[in-house]
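Let's practice the habit of predicting before peeking. Look at the sequence and jot down your guess about where helices and strands might fall. Then scroll down.
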Amino acid sequence: MQHRRHSWLVCLFLTIMLTSCYLRPSTSSVESSTARFIQSRTVSPENMVYLSFADTTYSYDFGFEYWDILSEQGKMFYDAMWNFKFKPREAYQSNLYHYSPANTFDLAAYLEAQKLLYLDHPEKELESLWNMSFSFYSGEEDYCNWGLCSLIEEKEYVSMMTRINLEISNLVYKVKKEPIKREKYQLIHDWIIANVKYDYEYYQNCLSPETKQFLNPESANIYGAIVNKLAVCDGISDAFKYICNQCHLECISVGGYFPNPNLDDSISLGHQWNLVYDQKWYLVDCTFDLDSDPSLKYFMADMHIDNRISNYPLEDYLKKDS
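Done guessing? Here is the structure:
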């Protein structure tokens, strides 16, 4: 009996030790936070090479342009969302991070990380990730558990990505065969110009609080642009970025704004476009080229054309190749 008990204790000890090997201690939490990892699949971007659904290799330089500008807690959220894996609904990843006290959980940092992850990796938006946080307060305990779940099933995501990659398979093949970098970018630009229409109905519905709730989200993501061939600037810019990623071409999606010459100077319009690199940085705005004459007006153009301004500080990243 004692021998069995001793064996059981040894097994328990080994199990605890092995489990601890898979838990990464919180060395990058916010100073005011005592966040720790309960279940961690996060990785360090600067030390890793990533594979997307379509087996596209991303490097830190080409796939994580916005990671560096996040807060430390924002980087934790970014990593968690990047490493999200579909699980059965009854096994939601609801305890990825633990915060004590609860007010050290930074919801704004999560929302910012989600927005920037989608700019870096547009396909992640199709996972429909949902923030799950649970706070508990009592006389002795005060904490918040944070995790993720998806609003769709894995088979739905796989189906969407399969259709997307089939639509662009011939284009990706041509781009990879093209030896000249500028021509690679132009093949992608011209494919979008020839195939995608601007969704004016979506745009008009955005302007009205009464109709905004009826928006089709696909028009603002890569599925709308690549499969439906109908999108607004978000989906069009995301499509350009996603195809560049598939072709191992450096590209940044930029959310920002520019003054509207037809309105008061104090009114600015939100927009999304891309930056590409060929010995120096250029602007590519496929949305504006849909209706422009010539259609290459916004291809490899000056980065600050139309006095547009980015929502995020990209200066340090852009300097690395200067």
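How did you do? The two ends are 72 Å apart (CA to CA).
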